[in-house]
Amino acid sequence: xxxxxxxxxxxxxxxxxxxxxxxxxxxxxxxxxxxxxxxxxxxxxxxxxxxxxxxxxxxxxxxxxxxxxxxxxxxxxxxxxxxxxxxxxxxxxxxxxxxxxxxxxxxxxxxxxxxxxxxxxxxxxxxxxxxxxxxxxxxxxxxxxxxxxxxxxxxxxxxxxxxxxxxxxxxxxxxxxxxxxxxxxxxxxxxxxxxxxxxxxxxxxxxxxxxxxxxxxxxxxxxxxxxxxxxxxxxxxxxxxxxxxxxxxxxxxxxxxxxxxxxxxxxxxxxxxxxxxxxxxxxxxxxxxxxxxxxxxxxxxxxxxxxxxxxxxxxxxxxxxxxxxxxxxxxxxxxxxxxxxxxxxxxxxxxxxxxxxxxxxxxxxxxxxxxxxxxxxxxxxxxxxxxxxxxxxxxxxxxxxxxxxxxxxxxxxxxxxxxxxxxxxxxxxxxxxxxxxxxxxxxxxxxxxxxxxxxxxxxxxxxxxxxxxxxxxxxxxxxxxxxxxxxxxxxxxxxxxxxxxxxxxxxxxxxxxxxxxxxxxxxxxxxxxxxxxxxxxxxxxxxx
Length: 544
Ligand code: GLN
Description:
2 domains; 23 strands; seven-stranded parallel sheet; alpha/beta; Rossmann fold
């Protein structure tokens, strides 16, 4: 096997865009004609990301083969424009679980099982499997967290050992932060020097440093880092904050020749150089100036005094992809569902906010908080003919709104919130009943790709341009088939159905400008180079 592995660690602090950095580097290598894939390692003990709160950890991204992962997997898919599967995500929890299960089954034949080599071997074997399955020339591996913390040290150790075992196939990259403190007025390199020393003490010398800062890294500082960190100054890549979109980052990186530097270290020449598609994308983003105003009614925004829309990352990106492809610049407004529940603020604030949008999305969610506000918003959008796109919980709440206000079932609800309602229009799937009873909640939802057959006369069929699609799921509840006739009789169109399980996948209101709800998450499959048809239809309607 001749695959090259690039391990990427973070320096100084988290949240500086390691995932996007890796995705951008991966894109560049792909455009040089190589087969590339990327892996994310999360140091958490959670076995997958499914049980993590999105306000704390960000969006839970679902792969086609149904693993609940970190949002960076979404970044890799969007930049590489290819599917990333479950083998490309691991956590401390998943690695330990596998090793401990093997130990329980006598898989280690009486040996003492230890962190080194058994955990580190497990990490290595998983990475080799990814390389083989993807027939990859390059595997980029993101080690979550920052160097020097206890949490990710086992993974750095695994990386170090891999370099020892296959010296010509492993390279280390450090994505580090260079602060410009106000009172000093210049960019400081010392924190990064310390980060490199910390890596050195783990037996690792970075081959490339990505210098994240608000400004570009100048020559003086490049040379300084070069001397103090023991590196060729050409391997220190400037990565300033960007004003435009993240999709410009690969173009920026190439200005510092990151692709060529990596290839040179592995003694490789480019197979090709084809940046045309990506450059065209960046050009079309830059030329999209006319705004289209989209509201997102959600609840996972706040951490203290800060708003972090990370929980809805894929939804935001899907809106952007569709808007740019139609020459528009998306302006996204965050609409706080909880505040819509108070009738005073509904009259003064909500109606104004909703009226101001060209289109409104109600994205996925769980639990009680904010749902009555979302239902109120959907009611307003339905009655006022404002384009609406409901995603997962969004479809469920739109069904509840329709049942309550059109079908005349005032207590219609989902059993997720009111298990005793006499009109459970949204209810638990049969396969979920036992799981919920046993509190077997991890990784047990309806997850990943499922087929959906489209109604021949539906808008969705027209937008997709095909009869059958496959989309990704993450939910426990469904439209209750016992109410389907009643809903349809009042004008709700079941526009998509799962052919095997006969489950409602898409609802539409044919008389409305654009009223579409999906039980799946189309946002997970939207890419900048291939925007999602339903998002495109939604934005088109919003523009109109
Ligand atoms: N809470 C709902 C369910 O579990 C919707 C989930 C979602 O929006 N992803 O079915």
